[in-house]
Amino acid sequence: MSENEREHAGTAGRTEETYSSAEYDDLGAGQTSENDSFRGRLRRYAQVGRSMTGLAAQFVGNRYLGVELDSVKHSSELRQALGGIKGPLMKAVQILSTIPDALPREYAQELQQLQADAPPMGWPFVKRRMTTELGPGWRRKFTEFSREAIAAASLGQVHAAKDTEGRELACKLQYPDMQSAVEADLKQLRWILAIYRRYDNAIDTSDIYDELCDRLREELDYDLERRHMALYRYMLRDEPTVFVPETVPELSTTRLLTMTRVGGSRIMRFLEEESDQEVRNRVAYNMFRAWYVPFYYYGVIHGDPHLGNYTVERDTQQINLLDFGCIRTFRPSFVKGVIDLYHALDTGDWELAKHAYRTWGFENLNEDVLEVLNMWASYLYGPLLEDRPRTIEGEQGTAYGAELANKVHKELKRLGGVRPPREFVLMDRAAIGLGSVFMHLNAEINWHRLFQELIQDFDADALAKRQHEALETCGVPAHT
């Protein structure tokens, strides 16, 4: 679910109109096709293409006329053009905008304002979709089912429900023809990136594009997301301050995901109502554990820390995780590389730093490129390197980070650019997304000691064994 959702799947006590199974009869609605249709792709190409043609002309024209592109003006026009396109393309562009240096700062700022919501499905269409997923007798499986969606996202919408056992549920139903939309949008995204790469070669996004393709296609499979939820319940079973809802397999399909509904406040509402700094610090601590216990113990990351994907329990500061479409597994050696780079920056061991980058997949690292990469890494690892309580952005503030990112981008462009490995997409997204949350909380924590708690007994072989057992138990395939 996206950051701009009005409500979330975990909130109880809805006032929307609901049906009683005794009040309605199934209409026997027809099936809806989910084929990757040629017609669906053509519609999507035309819709996106009209918005992008003028902007592409600006890119190419400025490139070959030797005129400097006004990135501030152009990025605003880009947002306006794409703002009318809903769905997976917006999700892909938003992910891309969080990767340092993949886009100029002005582009990232504009694109992060994009909304990823699609128009809601009306009640007649919802009935047809539910009939397709659970059969003509689907209503008898529920005692209540909200006619209006309680949350909207880029790929689906959520309805409140209650089953015959009285459990409060949230049912996420995928929008129609999403496979066609995803495939069409990914082709358009390749075109956009290719045009931009001709203008700026600082970051080669080839592997990033491949990663976006794989992860967005996975998000179409709600049965995989159901197994992701089982995996997170398994990995976080010993974390008392993090909660993952239970799924209801018998009421779920590849395009319908049903889970227990939980409460809690959205983070922005929580911030409005909670001024106690100690409480805010505990929320930040719990968020850190929710994201990084799975990574350092199991090599798994939740790549979507949008504000709409979790809630906070005010009394206990428990974090409720709600959405699991964007999950990635990592090689144990990749996780070890993260820790190796930390030690390298801490001790000034640049050979170890070079080894870490190569472990991740960076190639052709000369001393100049290594220096620039370490410049950015030192900033990102900064909170972990200082053994004292501090805010995530430090005394230098966010302006320093923006200036440094711009400097790194210019240096990489001068040196011929780099090609980040695909695994960095969700790692960067998670780190930047969580950093934004920590800044909203104004959390003051000894991040160094929190990090040390996670890595003090790190063993790559032990991680590999835990990861294998967890993935096998929950039926989740490992990524390569």
Properties at a glance:
disordered N terminus; transferase; kinase
How would you sum up the major sheet? 6 strands, antiparallel
**Order of helices and strands, N to C?**
EHHHHHEEEEHHHEEHHEEEEHHHHHHH
Number of helices: 17
| Poorly predicted residue ranges | 1-38, 55-69
- Overall average residue pLDDT: 81
Termini, distance in Å?
26 Å
Shape: globular
Number of strands: 11
- Estimated share of beta-strand residues: 5-15%
Helix content: 40-55%
Structural class: alpha+beta
User: What gyration radius follows from the Cα positions, in whole Å?
Assistant: 23 Å
List the topology elements.
Elements: E1 18-20, H1 38-65, H2 71-82, H3 88-97, H4 105-111, H5 123-134, E2 142-146, E3 151-152, E4 156-163, E5 168-174, H6 178-199, H7 206-219, H8 222-235, E6 242-243, E7 256-260, H9 267-273, H10 277-298, E8 300-302, E9 310-312, E10 319-321, E11 327-329, H11 332-347, H12 350-360, H13 367-385, H14 397-414, H15 424-441, H16 447-455, H17 460-474
Parallel strand pairs: 6-10
Antiparallel strand pairs: 1-2, 2-4, 3-4, 4-5, 5-7, 8-11, 9-10
Helix pairs in contact: 1-2, 1-6, 2-4, 3-4, 3-6, 6-7, 8-17, 10-15, 11-12, 11-13, 11-17, 13-14
Your description of this structure?
This protein is α+β, with helices and mostly antiparallel strands and 480 residues long. It has a domain at 1-220. Helix content is 53%, strand content 9%. The protein is built from 17 helices and eleven strands. The chain has helices spanning 38-65, 71-82, 88-97, 105-111, 123-134, 178-199, 206-219, 222-235, 267-273, 277-298, 332-347, 350-360, 367-385, 397-414, 424-441, 447-455, 460-474; strands spanning 18-20, 142-146, 151-152, 156-163, 168-174, 242-243, 256-260, 300-302, 310-312, 319-321, 327-329. Strands 1, 2, 3, 4, 5 and 7 form a six-stranded antiparallel sheet that branches. A three-stranded mixed sheet has the order 6-10-9, with helices on one face. A two-stranded antiparallel ribbon has the order 8-11. α3 (88-97) runs antiparallel to α4, α11 crosses α13 and α11 runs antiparallel to α17. The protein starts with 17 loop residues before the first strand and ends in a 6-residue tail after the last helix.
